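Loading example: each entry is read as two labelled lines plus one structure line.
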Amino acid sequence: MPLKIEIIGIGNELVTGRVLDQNAGYAAARLNSFGFEVNRIVLIGDQPGNIRSALKEAGKRADAVLVTGGLGGTLDDITVEVVSRVFQRPLVLHKGLQSQIRRFLTLRDIPWDPIYEKIAWLPEGVELFHPRPKACGFMMNEKGKLFFFLPGVPEEMRRYLDRQIIPYLVNRYPGQKVVRQRVYNVFGLLEPEVNEKFKDLEKRFGSLQLGFYPKFPENQLTISIRAEKAIGAERLLDSIEKIVEERLSGYLISKNGQTLEEVVGDLLIQKRMTLSVAESCTGGLIGHRITSVAGSSAYFDRSVVVYSNKAKMEMLDLPKKVLSRFGAVSEKTALLMAEGVRKKSKTDLGLSVTGIAGPGGGTPQKPVGTVWIALASGQGTKAGHFLFQGRRNQIKILTAYTALNWVRSYLINDTFLFSH
Amino acid sequence: MPLKIEIIGIGNELVTGRVLDQNAGYAAARLNSFGFEVNRIVLIGDQPGNIRSALKEAGKRADAVLVTGGLGGTLDDITVEVVSRVFQRPLVLHKGLQSQIRRFLTLRDIPWDPIYEKIAWLPEGVELFHPRPKACGFMMNEKGKLFFFLPGVPEEMRRYLDRQIIPYLVNRYPGQKVVRQRVYNVFGLLEPEVNEKFKDLEKRFGSLQLGFYPKFPENQLTISIRAEKAIGAERLLDSIEKIVEERLSGYLISKNGQTLEEVVGDLLIQKRMTLSVAESCTGGLIGHRITSVAGSSAYFDRSVVVYSNKAKMEMLDLPKKVLSRFGAVSEKTALLMAEGVRKKSKTDLGLSVTGIAGPGGGTPQKPVGTVWIALASGQGTKAGHFLFQGRRNQIKILTAYTALNWVRSYLINDTFLFSH
């Protein structure tokens, strides 16, 4: 049985929404990766009643409780007092901590203040972690249940967790199973379709857990395995990965949380190819995504964001008669944009998009969401037609994503194999 | 007495630390700003036992419970089943929702799947919010306690909360005084600085509540007033708004949640001016932001994303000797880029950015985060130097934001008045 842990975050700022708590999520991720199971995260304000009930409830359910916040010297830091009362452990002066605090203050020329005295008074029988003068973390064994108390300042919380608590737990509970997880980014499949493809896996592999998280426009599929040893978990995940790759095939964009633009960047580097872009309805989003990858200057030359027809004619030599005959959102325009930017920039690939992002500008023939994407290469140029649904920014995001996915597909297959 | 609310977030990803929950914090902030009190936030995984105990405990303590997550059609979405069992409300088919789902699928050519059927089966006696085909939010009155169930996808959760739940709560508890709120987007001031500027207001106006939400790179300041009548609250807010405008002055980007690009767009339309952009380190992000505003084609002509030096020379006629003597990231280059794009596009304004987004490419003279921004107009051209901190994408975002803010400042003042 994995050790069951609950996390309690204390502080008014957490329940008023003034501060987004990141401590609990961080601690949960770290503890999980070492095979400990976090069952519940509870955030409460600085009221004695709330702290009392949260401590009692967590102590009943969990094997260990990690409490963050409320350890400082100011008036609203009342965690220590409540702990003292709830567990009937009178506050005692920790002389070692007191002299540490005095040394710290002297060293920094900070005048003495009663609030520093308060920090050195802790419940009887607790064990101090490496003393810290502003708020010292400590632990307590209460009838076999472990309680860890840490400051709420994220850097201090993390240092205590990583350097003291996790080593302590791993050492005390060596029999824990480990948990290993892989993340797959999927595009073009709906949640039920992904579900259908993998629902047998949970039956086949007892300890396997599937997760699914929409992250527009992608979906993230996670596969977790709990095993005796890390190597066992990884081996099982390797064999499951083959099933995942086979069943997702073209819908699998990346493994291990890589972004689509990172995948495209890696492929371009691998093939020693360069890319330029001509964007209309995406307004620069494709260039932005490509350049969000460090080192993209190695393969990305330029993007021309030709929002107006004038810009399309001036910067990509689009003939006026093409625009007036076929329109800015047309196969012909997309083809000429891709070829134009490829030719001007002398890159291996030229990518273009033109469409109607809405909410205005749609017609019965070309409704909002109509998009043409084209890719020009040494092998010729291909264009494809799409009708995306959604609000303006969703259409932009879908268009940019699909266009980059065309580049990915072209680079993987060494030829045009796009599905519309 | 303010209404006491608890929030429950359901999903394995929240307690394994794979996803940082932002729903609870967002909801807490919004609810607080309308005078409701959030007492506890509980995050749990997709296990029936955990969901059951969390629902029961929250129902005992709170007046209303907001539950997010686990409403989809996949196997791990079990919130609805657990609710049905805990509150002994058998699942019934909501025909209206079912036909909405069918219409949605037909419209998008998505084949029917049993999991869509599952979404339309909800506990007896619940009230549906505006139906959404992927996961529909609903509410339930259980012996005087209100339970709200929302999808875990942040955009959907926020839409339900802001458009349905908050208006519902504000309406249902008229005995509670009315709460009116204004939102101010602030840029360039830290939380303690904003706090310092306004901390006297809470004392001066008894019912006033300040809220502060970082929304990188902006910060949102909210000011809420609780009063007997709406007109009284609005009048008070009007007079407070004068104080806010005075104290924030140049740091105040917009009121009522407008985005910076919307403000810039409105100003360009008002002044009948047009804009073109030359981007290097932002890679297209400025164009993307400008074109995220519907109707931006009225004032936005083009963005040239000149990522390579070759592109800078070919597309903006930058002399090779300027690039080799001063470098691509220099005042001279920024000035010539802004003038070049303005001249080529014949727009009223030409905006340019060039910088080092990192993590590579920095030198002792030009460290990562070094950015030059320039704006060319009929009155001449001005350039400014910045040193931004952060990761690659943060530097890109800060650069795009600051550049657009230059345009805003220029349009407001009818001249160059930038602070660096």
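The first helix of chain B runs from residue 12 to 15.
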